[in-house]
Design goal:
There is one protein chain. The chain is elongated. Helices cover about 70% and strands about 0% of the residues. By secondary structure, the protein is mainly alpha-helical. The model has no long low-confidence stretch (mean pLDDT about 85). Helix 2 runs antiparallel to helix 5 and helix 4 packs across helix 5.
Length: about 150
């Protein structure tokens, strides 16, 4: 009989600091990344307002909406739910309108709801760590991929 030998593998990664990576995951998302995400959301809304909106801008806003709504339903900023529902109705209306006449036009109340939703989501991002935010992103992706009954496809 031969003796059992441990086959534990040691992975050496060049340029990767596991301790720093763990610390970054536990910290609140840095301001530079938050500002970049907020800028992307606001620029998507701005391009739709100017009449130059494409499907990509619409997808950006729906991704923000899905994250904001999921976080609100899970207890992080539940006051955002009202504006999320209004923004959801507005994005549905605009999607159907875009299919018919290739134009995306929001009313003033719909714009206000979408802006409020973006502001709430920005505050939600500031309140949690990066690892928690990534968990919420994964939850939303799984809900969309698994075609959960809550998810509506347009």
């Amino acid at each position: 009989m031969s003796r059992k030998i441990c086959k534990r593998k040691h992975y050496v990664t060049n340029g990767f600091n596991a301790v720093q990576h763990a610390i970054d995951g536990a910290l609140v998302v840095d301001q530079k990344s938050l500002n970049a995400l907020l800028l992307r959301d606001l620029s998507s809304l701005e391009s739709i307002m100017m009449g130059q909106g494409t499907k990509q801008e619409w997808y950006d806003l729906t991704a923000t909406l899905n994250l904001c709504e999921t976080m609100a339903r899970r207890g992080i900023g539940p006051e955002a739910l009202h504006d999320c529902l209004l923004a959801q109705k507005a994005l549905k209306k605009v999607a159907l309108q875009y299919q018919n006449d290739k134009a995306m036009i929001f009313s003033k109340t719909e714009l206000k709801a979408i802006r409020n939703m973006i502001d709430y989501h920005h505050l939600q991002r500031q309140c949690i760590s990066r690892s928690e935010y990534e968990k919420f992103i994964q939850i939303v992706l799984n809900r969309v991929k698994n075609k959960t009954f809550e998810v509506e496809y347009i």
